Amino acid sequence: MLTHCRFMLIARSEYDSSRPSRGFTLLEVLVVIVLIGIIVTFAVLNIGGDRRAEELDETAQTFAALIELARDAAISRSEEWGIQVDPETYHFVYLEEDKWVDVQFSSVFRARPWGKGIEVELVLEGRDAILEEADDEQPSILILSSGELTPFVATFSARETEVRAEVEGDVFGNVESDMLEAFK
User: pTM for the full model?
Assistant: First the structure.
């Protein structure tokens, strides 16, 4: 009987070692699952992008487009227009009988907020402008009936992202919007 058990042990060990293993160990499966999880996480983060940077870009593009519309309106109506830029909002005005009046005949030119947490820096004719609440003051940016406007650079930033958006207008009425790379 003892010889029979010994033979079984020898036969079984020879059988197991000569037979190729089937399947994967639990450790191999777990390593693969962790690697797949890491890859998926990076893919989702890259696809999601920087939402705050997208908001800055949208704000800058809207501001630029509205300036172009206001320039066209000033030309077609033969009126002097302007934009009053405040720390939290901006709105369009036009000159009527030597007084700046809010544009109320079109909802396109209504007062608009910059957006929560968006900070605006304005440079007018190469000089930093101090943004403060305006009460019947001259507009920050003039839009003349000839299509010319006050040269300016408006830079939009937010604490949640290092990306900035910029809108630049020149004296000839050209307005461009651009995203700036991260700054330190």
Answer: 0.70
The residue-averaged pLDDT of 85-102 equals: 91
Q: Give the residue extent of every domain in the chain.
A: 51-180
Compute the mean pLDDT over every residue in the chain, rounded to the nearest whole number.
Answer: 83
Residues in a beta bridge with 63 = none
Is 108 in contact with 164 (CB distance < 8 Å)?
no
Domain 51-180 sits in CATH at 3.55.40.10
